[in-house]
Amino acid sequence: MRYFKSLGCCFLACYALTSHAGLALVGETKESIIYLNLDAAEKKGDVVKAEGSQDFHQQQQWAGHDYLSAKFVHEFDCAKRVVRQLALSIYPENMANGGALLNDTQAKDWASPAAGSAQAMMLNKACPAK
Known about the structure:
By secondary structure, this protein is α+β, with helices and mostly antiparallel strands. It has a single domain (22-126), classed as Beta Barrel (Lipocalin), CATH 2.40.128.710. It is 21% helix and 46% strand. It has helices spanning 2-19, 118-126, and strands spanning 24-28, 32-44, 47-62, 65-77, 82-91, 102-104. The longest helix is centred in the N-terminal third of the chain and has 18 residues, at 2-19. 19% of the residues are buried.
């Protein structure tokens, strides 16, 4: 019986790892851990469009919802060094578990990220220096 428990745990661990395949660690801030899926990113000229996720160390609040993780789609203009959010979904548990609490599909304006911010870290990952 112990063999089947170990096998079951191994299966769950492998499933969890492959369910997030393609996500590369961007970095960690004091607030969160950030991932980008650059394997599936779309590139048109100087603009990279990529999906990603952010896991927070402590509960966050947005529009009356408490959440611990977010999934997003961002565009990065590598030539102009600006970023914009195209979509955002928030989740009550880490790794986008627990069902989406809120979805925002309103594209935001292009903006220059603050030095050292999560957005700056993502821009540097999506647009590495040549």
